[in-house]
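Re: the 280-residue chain
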Amino acid sequence: MKTRIAAMGLALAMAVPCLAQANVEEKTAMNGETQVGYSVRGEGPLVVMIASTGRSAAEFAPVADRLAERGYRVALPEPRGIGASTGKMTDVSFHDFGDDFAAVIEQEGGKAIVAGHAYGQWIAKTVASDHPDMVSGLALIAGGAKSWPPELSEAITMINDPASSREERMDGLLLAFFTDEQSAEPWLEGWHQDVTVSQRAARKLTDRDDYWAGGTARILDLQAGSDPFRPESSRMEVREELGERVTVEVIEGASHALPAAKPVETADAIADWIETLPTE
């Protein structure tokens, strides 16, 4: 499993030749009896990146390499059930997952910008709500609107199903995640159905009010211009609800898998926003 994840991250990094690959350390942190496997690269303020539903954080490698070039230390923790991350996967909530990633922050220095992609934005908000002293800002990457068409969730279920054909999975990827087949190709693989099931169950066991506001941290709402989970009519949804601590940015030419399709642009948007935050 570790070899497959590492190879996937390398392949994605090679697809972005302008990026120099940073030296990567493989580490683990403990949250009680739960082990969290993660990679870390770069030097500087800490950025922790949380992956989307059923996906590995190794896919953030090109984004992490660019952030390392911009002067940040980037940790990519895996969710339970992927790589070296192990722990209970039933009867758990967002708070349990958030505590996993808080253990990484604590081990790496105690404070971080936490960035979550898609599903990962909810866990990032949970970390900020439960551990406000550990979070200096939140980057919500391609976060969905308050509601979206059910066929998008159904596409994720289908893509996760090993019985689905390649053609069916590609159709699902083009519906929900990508604007073209070339960009979507790497995502035909790398799905973890058991992780997706666990993460969806955890959402049902978590009170929305417990995490939705993301504490009081400043927020970057980084959207993809062609994201079906986030239509243009919902552009200002988060800012209207949470106020002036929210900065809205849109990257055109990408769908829901924004960091996979536009890694340099995603990293630069995050780094540029971090530079606007007040220093402590």
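The domain at 2-146+192-274 is CATH 3.40.50.1820 (Rossmann fold).
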